[in-house]
Design brief:
4 helices; two-stranded antiparallel ribbon; 84 residues; 52% helix; mainly alpha
Length: 84
């Protein structure tokens, strides 16, 4: 199965957020830098994830993204449908 770059980046970002769950919210820029993903591209991917209800944006002093629901409740199918 061939996966698009957008889906691959979404999965990398998801795994990063799970690994760093105690440090959330995290910016898409921080994830992009850590994972070697183009920042502008990842920002667009996060827009799709927000729209799908997988993550939500946090405003204020600590801007970034957090999970909209428990990571255990998010399936790979949810991720694919949000991006593809």
């Amino acid at each position: 199965m061939k996966v698009s770059n957008a889906t691959a980046y979404a999965l990398l970002a998801f795994v990063y957020m799970v690994r760093h769950a105690t440090e959330l919210p995290v910016s898409s820029g921080a994830i992009a830098k850590a994972e070697g993903i183009p920042p502008g591209y990842l920002a667009k991917v996060f827009g799709r994830l927000v729209k799908a209800g997988i993550v939500k944006s946090v405003k204020g002093r600590r801007k970034g993204y957090v999970f909209a629901k428990h990571p255990e409740e998010i399936s790979l199918l949810d991720m694919f449908e949000a991006i593809e």
